[in-house]
Amino acid sequence: MKKAIITGITGQDGSYLAELLLERGYEVHGVVRRVALEYPRSRMRRILHILDRVTLHSASLESYASLFNIIADLRPDECYHLAAQSFVSYSFEDEFSTIQTNLNGTHYVLSALKRLAPQCRFYFAGSSEVFGNVPVSPQNEDTPFHPRSPYGISKMAGVELTRNYREAYGMFAVSGILFNHESPRRGAEFVTRKISIAAARISLGLEREIRLGNLDARRDWGHARDYVRAMWLMLQQDEPRDYVIATGRTRSVRDFLDAAFTRAGLDYREHLVVDETFYRPAEVHELCGDAARARDGLGWSPTVGFRELVHEMVDSDIALFSGRGGLAPGEWEVGS
Ligand code: G4F
Predict the structure, then answer these.
(1) Residue 66's pLDDT band (boundaries 50, 70, 90)?
(2) Global pTM value
């Protein structure tokens, strides 16, 4: 039985990936922060249904020793390093901890694997935010990086570090450069989930307005369940390579808003307040990925389209806020 370790198992991607690995017969281990163990109903809400089938270990991305000890005990076959401070806006507010945690955390995991389990296959959760201010569209693995946020910089450095471990030490270490991927499990601070929650709550009479920033930003939005399948595929190849994962189609924030509110039976124009506080110091205006290498090399393609994604998210939030979602009020918004 293959042994896999996932950092960030309590997040959107970690939870879908854990399900996928369990289905494929893996022994699944997750690294979580101490606080998650203290508040399982909220912090572990995405993995409550599989808690009896995964083993959790508490560690901190800031502590080399804590990560080293877990890897020493487990000697995993595959390691998926997903944990990070992943909210772009917040990275402007706290540049230092974003860059420090994201980069050092990756470095610690890679270094411990090199020392203790050099045969372990390593996946790094890169991001399309590395492209930032793009000179060409769509973006692929050869597009130059020009990140526009401390978060993007931390991910660019992580991709380069992973490449260096591959080239310098011969490790099977790869990065997935994933474009935006969403689902009902998305954290409430990201724009798609903020919109689906607002659409649900307004339609149920629980709120009246939604406050948003730049509505003209365009993103290439796919479904997270499709994207974790690509992560797994990357580690099953003969050769380690980085891959862009994307749908190849962009929509604006306004398109998402319109589709979500229409699904909830609402007209977004009656509820929208454009709020300057949600604008970013440096915006990434448009990202669109070219996943040809993944299509040809991994046999990967997305299965969920834009409208299906929006509808799943809105329907799920209507169920959640009308009391059919299985969580008590207050448990949905914590620790995304
Ligand atoms: O949903 P977002 O916060 O996602 P963003 O910044 O594109 O980053 C996400 O995708 C990346 C992959 O490319 C990941 F690496 C990253 O960790 C994260 O998952 O914002 C999307 C767009 C932005 O242009 C933002 O300016 O929506 C715009 N926006 C407009 N109003 C807003 C809001 N974003 C948020 N979060 N909240 C708003 O009120």
Answers:
(1) very high
(2) 0.96
